[in-house]
Structures are given as structure tokens and as C-alpha cells.
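Human: I would love a firmer grasp of how sequence relates to backbone shape in proteins. Take your time, and here it is.
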Amino acid sequence: IVDLGGDPLESGAGRGAGGDPFGGFGFGDIMDAFFGATGAGGRRGPRSRVQSGSDALIRLQLVLEECASGASRELTVDTAVLCSECNGSGCAPGTRPQTCDTCAGAGEVQNVQRSFLGQVVTSRPCPVCRGFGEVIPDPCRQCGGDGRVRTRRIVTAKVPAGVGDGMRVRLAGQGEVGTGGGPAGDLYVEVQEVPHETFTRDGADLHCTVRVPMTSAALGTTVALETLDGTEEVRVEPGTQCATVLTLRGRGMPRLRSTGRAEGRGDLFVHLDVVTPTRLDPRQSELLRELALLRGEEQAELTANGRAGGLFSRLRDSLGGR
């Protein structure tokens, strides 16, 4: 699955079970802290030790050719995994949690106060069991009672053809394992595309610049261009001007859809840069002057639209003179 936007660390990590933005401390906790429960029916009961894990993010650098063809990489990630010693329970082998004596398994303790308004009952999480309703008298030595440990492991990420810079590939269930043996979050692989020395990318389209000598642009030539599909013979027609753009249809990047599959391809735009010669030797300068004389361009007065003539010639034309 390809994620085209959004930050998994903002939408999943650090929010507690069920995506609660208060990290497991909900609005009911706030109300109970101020007003307390209104009887046995108002208690929420102990909270579960089993919590869903958060998402994780790792970045992967790919060159343009890998983004075009797709890639499979083995990545080393550092995440929380299920404790192999206690299998997520947090208890030492052969032991189990016990009911908290302080709250009698309720997960909260109550305080009754009398005031001129009457009897006020407030409740708060049990300070001994931290609201779980049970305690672990003999925690697992490997995980310290958390039910998970951090370790480095290798995962395989398959990146589809057509991915671009900033896109994310989601690996379901490969993120952080939750406390108490809870389900793991997802691992997002964010693509960082390495700049290419020849092509620049605009979505599924590619752009490149080819320098063409002035003589070749005037006479016409064929340029061998290395594309994603191999060498392409690009024809430069005689009289080609600077900034001319040639379009090679279907020679761009695969078009990646939100489904994670590529459908069709973009185009390759070849920008021609006609190079004017510099540092001419005497013979070359003489040949260019001869060409200018033959074309009637020697000492010609050119206007902005490329026509010969200046202020006096335009005035003469307006008066009907020759």
C-alpha cells in the first residue's frame, strides 16, 4: 500500500490505544478527577495492560532508475518486539498477575469528602497498580514487566514502480509492538529520491537539456540520448532554434496510482540549448562573415521582431517612401 501523504507518526504514534490524542487519558478521566464517580455504575473499571503499538518510520534512498522500475530492499529497523521470555505478559515464567490489594481490582481509589454542598466523591487511578487493577509481584527479568523489548531486525520492503520523493510504502504490522503483548503498529518506508545528473522530474514527466552546436542546429543532426529505456535517436531538424522542446511520448516515469499499481507512463521533454561558438580563430571568423554577407545579414539593423530596419527606415515606410 502506497501512502501519498500524511505523517504516520502524527496520526498513530504517541496517541495510545484507539488513537486517543490524550494518550490513553480520556475526557472521562478529567471528569472523574473533578467530580468523581456517582456510584458503582459510574466506575469505568481497570484499564487493560494490552495496548496497541505505535507506527514507525524509516527512510530509504533510491535513484531515479530504481523509482522507475521498482525495488526490493532489506532494511534494518530498531523497534519494540514481543518479549520471548514472558510472551508479552510481563510476568516471570511460572507466575501471574495478582489482584491489587489497594483498589481491590477496581483500578481506582475513591475519596469521600463532606462539604456544605453535601457529600463529594472523587476518584483517581490507583497509585499502586496505576489503574490496571492488578500488580505483577515478580516482573519478567528480560523486559522488566513491559511485555516487550527493543531489538534490531531485518524487514523486506518492496517499493512499486513509479514512486517519488516523499511517498511512503506501508508495511502492515511491522511497527512497534504494543505493551502487554498488544498488536504491532505499521512501518512506513519513506522514499528519498536522489537527484539525477541528467533528468529532472515533474510527477511522471521527465525533463533534460541537450546542448546542440549552432552549425548542427542550422544543418540538422541526430542526437543519441540515454533514456530509461536505453539509447534513443533524437532528430534535430534543420533550422532548430534555441529553447526548442522535443517531446518523447511515453518515455517518462510510470504513473503510480493510489492502488499501488502503475498505469501508463509520462513523457520525456528534451530541451534544446543551441550553443553559440566563442573564441573564434581568424579563419572561423572570416567564414562567418562570408555567411553573413551571403545571407544579407552583414551590419543589418534588426528590430525586436527580427526584421531589418531602424527608426528612419520605419519613418520612411510610414510616409510611403522606399
